[in-house]
Structure formats: C-alpha cells, structure tokens
Amino acid sequence: MNWAVITGASGAIGRAISACLAQRGFSLVLHYHSAEEPMQKFSFEISRRYNVDTKILPADFTSENSTRAFCETLESLKVPLQCLIHCAGGVPSPNSLSRITPSDWNTIFSLNATAPFFITQAALRLFVPNSDIIFISSISTKYGGGENTLHYAAAKAAVESIARGLARRLAAETIKVNVIRAGFILTGAHKKMGRTREDIQERISKIPLRRVGTPDDISRAVSFLLDSPFVTGSVVEVTGGD
Ligand SMILES: NC(=O)c1ccc[n+]([C@@H]2O[C@H](COP(=O)([O-])OP(=O)(O)OC[C@H]3O[C@@H](n4cnc5c(N)ncnc54)[C@H](OP(=O)(O)O)[C@@H]3O)[C@@H](O)[C@H]2O)c1
What we know:
Blueprint: E1 3-7, H1 12-23, E2 27-32, H2 36-50, E3 54-58, H3 64-77, E4 81-86, H4 102-123, E5 127-138, H5 140-143, H6 150-170, E6 175-182, H7 188-192, H8 197-205, H9 215-226, E7 235-238
Parallel strand pairs: 1-2, 1-4, 2-3, 4-5, 5-6, 6-7
Helix pairs in contact: 1-2, 1-9, 3-4, 4-6
Bound molecules: NADP nicotinamide-adenine-dinucleotide phosphate (NAP).
C-alpha cells in the first residue's frame, strides 16, 4: 500500500485533498499545527470510511526546530511514499507595506516556502517510482499580494520557483512536481485574517466566474495531476478565471 503525506491536513483544503487521496486508496500521513482534536477525529473517520492506514504528525513550520523534528520523524517512518502535498500555509502575520517587519517576513517565508522545501528534501529517500509532489500556491503571486499580504505573495512565488527547480531535477527519478495556484477559496483562513462578509462579496465580484472556489475544486485539480503522467513543472490555476 502506498502512502501520501499531506501537510496542513487539518485545514479546509487539506481535509478535502486528504479525503480525495484516501478515496483513491492512499494511506495517509496527516500533518496539523494546532488543531489536534479535530485532526484525531478526522484521521479516525477517514481511516474507517476508506479502510486505509493513517498517522498524524504535528509541527509548527514557523519554527526551524519543529520543522527539523517533523522532517526527522517523516524520514524515520520509512513508508513507501507516492504523493507529497504541501498544503500547510497562510498568513500568520498580515501587515501593510510600510509595517512589515523582518519577523513578519521570516514567519511567512518559513511557513510557505522554507518548510515545504526542507520537508521535500527529507522525503526524497522515501519516494517510490512514479510519484507526485504538489505545492498549493496562490493567485496572489499574480498580483503581488493584497493590502497586507505582499510578503505572503513573495513566499508563494518562491515556492513556485522551488517547484519548477525540483521538477527538472526529479524527472529522472520519475517524480512529477507541480503547483496548484488557488484562487479565492472559501475557508476559515479569510476569517482568521479579519476579512468581513462585505470584503468577501467584493472579492467575489472580481472573479470572472462570479463565485468563490471550494476545497473540492482544489482536490479535483490534485486528482487531475495524479492522473496526468506527462504533466510536470506546471502551474495549474484553479481561480475561476481570476
Ligand atoms: N483559502 C484560500 O483562498 C487560499 C488561496 C490561495 C492559496 N491558499 C493556500 O491553501 C493552503 C490551505 O489554506 P486553507 O484556506 O485551507 O486554510 P486553513 O483552513 O486555515 O488551513 C491552513 C493549514 O495550515 C496549517 N498551518 C497554519 N499555520 C501553521 C504553522 N505555523 N505551522 C504548520 N502548519 C500551519 C493549519 O494547521 P492547524 O489548523 O492545525 O493550525 C492548517 O492545516 C495554504 O497553503 C494557503 O496559503 C488558500
């Protein structure tokens, strides 16, 4: 039985992707940061529903020590890895252009770019042939971020470059590497950033398809990439035309 690792499996998009992979028969290593109880419940339910094995692994990717410990644990699991999804991310330190501090910058980069790179490096020994790595990036890379998220957009742009570099280097090992560039997806992340219902309505009015995306829109793109043996080094936009 082959395994998938999903970072940020406790988030809305991470849960949708995890369920999709379990449905496809993967056993799962599910990462979370703070949502321990919901993660335990989700892990139990998914394992029972799809008859797959699950393990849960906590880590704070804004901390170098915690990321290192996560990487060491991952390597020690010695599972045959066929899929690695980098979904942990977000904007823990939103701030305006003139107020972004070095600490805000480092926090955002650690979570959204640095940790995904070092987790991939640690996972390399576990991959079986014909594997996939997928990074969840953001439409913000196209616009350079919003009012308080310039540093977030820069970190996601970095991860897109990391993905392209990995795709070229890992192709010989039959590991495909792709990016899903997510548009505006309705999850708890927006509320955490203080966005109001009005903010969200205004944002929707700028999306050509005139609706928000859902976590399932992203998991469908994951399925597409897993089913596409000739697609690597690509950025798949799931943005409603944004
Ligand atoms: N929602 C959107 O519109 C949108 C658009 C573009 C890209 N994205 C990207 O999609 C991914 C998932 O976002 P989401 O909307 O599903 O948000 P979410 O529900 O808030 O999930 C965020 C995930 O990241 C984890 N996380 C947060 N801080 C962390 C930290 N310090 N260390 C390790 N993990 C941490 C969370 O863990 P806990 O919950 O356990 O703390 C959770 O699993 C992110 O990479 C985000 O940047 C989202």
